[in-house]
């Protein structure tokens, strides 16, 4: 099968290109930046360029985007041009070329303020039923692009699957306080309890979405590691997260002590992946339980695919105050 991967020089894009090639698909990689996995260098904001890339394509994996780290370095129009207009171009040319399925990588950031409960309130239980309240141009443009996908399915019958992925970047956290308080791997491992997913599992979700797209037609799915928590834990997660974690993993503190690690004191949200597991048949391997076992054995925590792809960053330059500037 001939497939198009947008953002093929990026973190998820490269991972997708690697895996698709392993599966013997013909992969056309599109990106602004040259890489071994990018065959066509150009912008999705250029519709004529997008059209040139669509010949013979059966499946589009659209991962190219301006991200949250770009909010401080790019203006509003650039976000609109890339995340909305670029997606529109891809949808229009997919339809014209007879593409059979369109898999769009969105983000849990679309939920925005809906995931920030006020002090004294339980943690947010984040399912697809939660109404998004985007808090920056990144969230606004990704939500608009999701709606374009739905429009093209409803009006033109183009099967479109939207995957709202949680964080999977390998870089350190953008918050200075968290970087100062936690080792990088410690913080990431904590996040697998409520707001992180492994790159290997994201790739698997993408492949399953492509398999199911024509049967499902359209759908939005949260792609995050399976959390052990239940709705009745939400209040305690705001006041004593470590105690709640201990209820499910009685030995985690002993394991953590061996690494001089610690748990977050509070979780403000819990991402729920039940819909993706049910509809896509997705079975994410990397969750807190799996990572705890790897810690006990002294093994690598990242998947082999994530180690191959490595850290990409988001900018061509470095910043003194963190991995990227915060607006």
Automatic annotation (TrEMBL):
Instruction: Give the superkingdom in one word.
Output: Bacteria
What region holds the NAD-dependent epimerase/dehydratase domain? Answer: 3-174
Q: Which Pfam families match?
A: Epimerase
Name it.
Nucleoside-diphosphate-sugar epimerase
């Amino acid at each position: 099968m001939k497939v198009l991967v947008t953002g093929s020089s990026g973190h998820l894009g490269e991972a997708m290109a690697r895996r698709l090639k392993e599966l013997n698909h013909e992969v056309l990689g599109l990106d602004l930046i040259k890489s071994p996995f990018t065959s066509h260098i150009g912008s999705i904001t250029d519709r004529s360029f997008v059209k040139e890339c669509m010949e013979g394509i059966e499946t589009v994996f659209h991962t190219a985007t301006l991200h949250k780290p770009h909010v401080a370095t790019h203006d509003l129009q650039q976000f609109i041009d890339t995340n909305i207009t670029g997606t529109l171009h891809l949808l229009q040319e997919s339809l014209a070329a007879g593409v059979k399925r369109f898999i769009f990588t969105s983000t849990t950031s679309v939920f925005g303020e809906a995931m920030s409960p006020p002090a004294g309130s339980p943690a947010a239980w984040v399912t697809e039923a939660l109404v998004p309240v985007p808090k920056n141009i990144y969230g606004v443009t990704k939500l608009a692009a999701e709606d374009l996908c739905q429009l093209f399915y409803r009006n033109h019958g183009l099967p479109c699957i939207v995957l709202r992925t949680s964080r999977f970047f390998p870089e350190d956290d953008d918050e200075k306080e968290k970087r100062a308080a936690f080792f990088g791997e410690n913080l990431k491992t904590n996040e697998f309890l409520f707001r992180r997913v492994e790159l290997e599992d994201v790739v698997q979700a993408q492949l399953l979405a492509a398999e199911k797209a024509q049967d499902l037609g359209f759908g939005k799915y949260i792609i995050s590691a399976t959390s052990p928590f239940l709705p009745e834990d939400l209040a305690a997660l705001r006041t004593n997260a470590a105690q709640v974690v201990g209820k499910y993993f009685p030995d985690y503190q002993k394991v953590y002590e061996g690494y001089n690690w610690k748990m977050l004191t509070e979780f403000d949200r819990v991402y729920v992946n039940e819909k993706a597991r049910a509809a896509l048949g997705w079975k994410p391997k990397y969750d807190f339980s799996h990572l705890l076992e790897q810690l006990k054995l002294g093994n690598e925590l990242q998947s082999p695919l994530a180690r191959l792809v490595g850290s990409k960053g988001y900018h061509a330059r470095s910043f003194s105050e963190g991995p990227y500037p915060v607006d």
